[in-house]
Amino acid sequence: MTINDIRELLSARVCAGQTLLSNEVETACGSDDMSDVMAYIKKRAVLLTGMLDPEVVRTAKMMDIICIVFVRGKSPTEEIIKVAEEMNIALLATNLKMFQSCGILYSAGLCNDTVVPEEKESE
User: Fold this and answer.
1) Residues with Cβ within 8 Å of residue 19, at least 6 apart in sequence
2) 38 three-class SS
3) Helical H segments across 10-53, by residue range
4) Dist. CA 13–CA 11, nearest whole Å
5) Where are the alpha helices (DSSP H) in 1-123?
6) In which order are the strands placed within the sheet that holds 90-93?
């Protein structure tokens, strides 16, 4: 699936990375918790988040995330856009909620097959 496919499926607008729309995405993750993103995301991924902070883009770069979709009608600031352009990461924004967005992408065949380890119960 390409970034442009994601844009179309989520009725999203492009905020940065217009030239990156033909890049292929292999997996997806929806989270506002960057520590979860760092623990479970795979390469060539799209991150769906409602967190508006330049650190989201920096975390994305470390994890080889090639596209960030801001959900719930949130729009990235000029600072976030600038960082994304410097790091060659596409930014999209959709009015859909995260749950809806993840469901649409999953139904279209994009998934994250990361297995989350079970937590041990306290004794």
Assistant:
1) none
2) helix
3) 34-40
4) 7
5) 3-9, 34-40, 54-62, 78-86, 98-107
6) 13-16, 90-93, 65-70, 45-49, 27-30
Helix axes 54-62, 78-86, angle to 10 degrees: 20
* Percent helix, strand and coil across the chain, each to the nearest 5: 35, 20, 45
Q: What dihedral do alpha carbons 68, 69, 75, 78 form, nearest 10°?
A: 20
Q: What is the pTM of this model?
A: 0.88
Asked if residue 98 lies in contact with residue 48, where contact means CB atoms within 8 angstroms, the answer is yes
Q: Token pair of 9, please?
A: 């499926």
Beta carbons within 10 angstroms of residue 112's beta carbon: 19
pLDDT tens column, 8-42: 999 999 999 999 999 999 989 899 888 888 877 77
Beta-strand pair 45-49/27-30: parallel
